[in-house]
Amino acid sequence: MKLDSALFAIGAALSLTTAAFAAGGSTGHAFYGDPPDERHAWCVHDQNRPQPKVVAPLPVSELEAKAKAPADAVILFDGTEASLAKWCSDKNPNEPTKWIVRDGAMECVPKSGYVRTKEEFGDCQLHVEWAAPSKVEGDGQGRGNSGIFLLGVETQVLDSYKNLTYADGMACSMYGVNPPLANALRPPGEFQYIDITFHRPIYKDDKCVQPGWVTVYCNGILVQDRTQIEGPTGHRARTKVGPLPEKGPLKLQDHGNPVRFRNIWYRPLPSTAAKGGTRGPLPAKAVAAERKKIAAKVRKDAAAKPEGSVEQMLRFAESLVYEKDDATFATMEKLASQYAASLKQLPADKAGAKKDEVLQVDSAFKYLAKWNFVPENFGPKVEVANFIKAQGWDKKPKKK
Fold first, then answer.
1. Edge-first strand listing for the sheet containing 146-150
2. Low-confidence ranges of the chain (pLDDT < 70)
3. Would you give the DSSP letter of residue 48?
4. CATH topology of domain 51-275
5. Deepest in the core among 3, 4, 160, 370, taking most CB within 10 A?
């Protein structure tokens, strides 16, 4: 085929008339989704948006080992009828779902409606495996279509294997928001291994103080790299910027195709600082409160150590790193002075057995002085350093 003929053929394949789109056409429609704005160069579901490159998925043997649920995971579906009881109709949560279990997978019954978990959760690591029907019917958005919804944010499920559609609606897109970095799908009928890390955005006083983001791996290939989310996703329309609920069910979409799902589990993720947790930088007030809590815990542990022991002295010293406390400093200084005095009374033939302990104490005193928790001329620090020097422990061994 000549180059100009080939380009014409490609252009024809990517073009879409209104009639073709209505029938489930290939790449998108010129007058379909919200138009570009000051923050977005493309329309929603834009036919002109570049198609992701095709990348070969990892071998199933490699993916199966990573797909096993870790010990702290919550199992949502394990292939049994019993685990289907953890799900219900999304439209009528008091009713069981009409989806069925077939060959260890949960299969969508077309026109039965979305299915959702009875359990609700928020930020998470989610694993899902899905397969489009092996019998290929339809094209574009009409082929193997479903969706994975977390708090209203959809990771698209679609048979995108040799099947063109608009880039922000193909498999593993953040639907209507961001196309995947690559098309790493297996053929229809084969299971796709999907891993999602989800963090919802945080708003305070109608302002976003921490953007949400989603990372997705498809068959071992990174396809969404910390894609920012500002609110729920939607069809033909841009994200409505705003907060998401703290928790909610996992939903799977009924889009009229008998898509199958299996091995669904999640791990809840600890809260970030903006959500009241301790991950990441904290506000000054929260930092002070957390340090005070740590210091109290360390002091309590120190008090339980053998009276006058090195362990007790070092734990009291450690607590000062988190919170200044005059009484604790005085106790630590008294124990440190007693320790330094004990070294002077140590028989020469017993010194060697104490070497590791003394060097540990010396290292702790140097750290405390470096960060101004004790003065540089702190008496016990100076005496311990002198003892080390007298033993010749400060000398570096000569290189051979």
1. 87-89, 115-117, 250-252, 146-150, 153-157
2. 1-28, 273-275, 277-282, 398-400
3. T
4. Jelly Rolls (2.60.120)
5. 160
